[in-house]
Design goal:
- By secondary structure, the chain is mostly helical.
Length: 67
Amino acid sequence: MDLELLDLAIRLLAPAEVCTAYEHPNLAAWREVREAIVSGAAGRMVFVGDGEAASDDPAVNALRALI
């Protein structure tokens, strides 16, 4: 995901913050990743549709290890 696409995702999701009844962890995480990338770090977005499904993708397995 390049910065342009990440910025678009953040802009499209930002209106959800009007609803304060829910937290918006994905939006917060995307903003953190955006700031880290601007600071020179590398970022990778990983989307997992089924948290229980086996995967041979190292990025998916790294994400699962974190959570």
